[in-house]
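ingest -> fold -> write
write: protein_1
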Amino acid sequence: MSPFRQTLWLTAGAVLVFGGLRSLPDKHCAFLHADHQPVLYNGVEFCGVNEEANYYHPQTMQFPVKLEIKIEGQGGHLKLLKEEGRPFTDYEMGISHTEKVHLHLRQVSGRVDYIHLHPQSMDEGVWEFTFPESFLAGNPGGDFQAFVDFVPLRTGRAMLAQSSAHWQRPPIVATPRTSRNQIKSLQMTTDKAGESAYIRVQLKSPQEPGTLKLMPIMGALGHAVLFGEAKENPGYAHIHPSFEGKEYDPQPTLSFRLRLPKAGHYDLWININDGAEDYLSAPITVKP
């Protein structure tokens, strides 16, 4: 075969592979959960069911990506830079849990808060995000820890990135984040570092009799994030619930499976959908 025809065949093959990757369905969730098939329950497909999550420190894991983030006004933007300095662009990203980029912002000064956002590609390699009114209300700004997880199409493997940012706002009267719903109880099957634990969180509505109907959010009935102490243990775990049969009770229970990190104090944030997004938090202590 002549060099010209060989080049032509290689080029055609590359185009077909790229086209196949680009044609994957937008609701695809298997990239982050390659060993777990989606579960169909009540006609809804759920991702990451019965997985055990781990606590990560992305900055120490040497992923070939650098997160640059700036928060200003009512949102901000970020770049995910490769080792050679070029940014990841929209067409290079796979879909995981219905979105391309997952941004976890933990507010560590001004007020204690957390929000899970999905930046959208606006310019080549620039991803923009906007805060919802519920996050803006009474928020004086402050210092943030930022964690991003995403899946490049080329590798199909999850990548994590970590950085920090400051949000300067005009002076306002700070008020705590409010939640529409409540945590009724939180139980752990073990609190020993290094062991596999189920964290079972029962939720309720504040209105009597406290009935709460959970709706899917990003391919699950809820998402949880665990943060360690901001200075001594700056990392996170992104956890998805298992199915144990109590998710649709009037006061539903979500069960999160986690390999417990080292001993210390942690904050557990739970993101649910009862018709609109809501955030709840609870402290957790892990013992040696």
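write: protein_2
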Amino acid sequence: MSSDSEHLVDTSFYDNLTLGLIKILEKTPGIQDVELEQRPPCERALLAGWEQRNGCVLPDDLRQFYTSVDGFKLIWNYNYAGEILPVGNMVINSLSGLKKINCLKCQLDPDTPTFQELDNFVKQNSSTKLASTNNNYGPKTKFFELDACQNAGKVCLVYTERQKEELFKLEESSIWFLDRSYCWHFLAENFAKYFRMMLVHLGLPQWQFLFTAMGPTPWAEQMIVLIAPHLLTDNKIPVTSTELDEVINRIDPNIFKPKSKSLKSKKTIRDNEKHAK
């Protein structure tokens, strides 16, 4: 059983991590059954093992996230005309779930295209800037799944292939969305910004599709209009990344610290107070 101090630290940590979103959801008409899955931090040895196995270094913001909490899951329901619907779903895979997506070719169907082949096709045939822009995908590009999006697509951490003149630079990564037609769509230049975007969009169904040419399904769009119409403009174009920064606060890097350290410091303070008495 956790002590009162542990409970207080956990509550404060998640309040800061979610920028107070849980309290906002609980006060929003129609939203109910808000559930947050609390998880322990990742051990540094596991982080080092992941990097060694996959041959790449985790971005600083994602590494700090995992040293604080091993993944994230926040869900909520919505009362729609008396029917309780599971609507909100915010997920960041645990470190063990941050798995590499190797290739779309499979042994059963050798004609299935690879990521690079699909990307080349999109570049040659796409007339929109939303899909697969400025990619540098190649045989050495690495894709890791952050969220399966309830089988509607995949949010991925993507390490782009470095050019010859960039071989001595650190690997660059960004966050992209892979839809079910295997088109890539840029979401954010780093994990911290994607996490903020997820909070702003409340984990609404198919919110990532707002950043694609196709957009969400009519049902998902209806949920957005009912619960958070401010996320859409009159012409149904999502808010820009610049506007997102104005809507929400930046996550304080100090939040990404192991909770055990906070607990230890509180215990030390209490012990010192006892000795002083």
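write: annotation protein_2
Strands lie at 31-37, 72-80, 83-92, 142-147, 153-159, 173-179, 184-188.
Residues 138 and 174 are 15 Å apart (CA to CA).
pipeline exit 0
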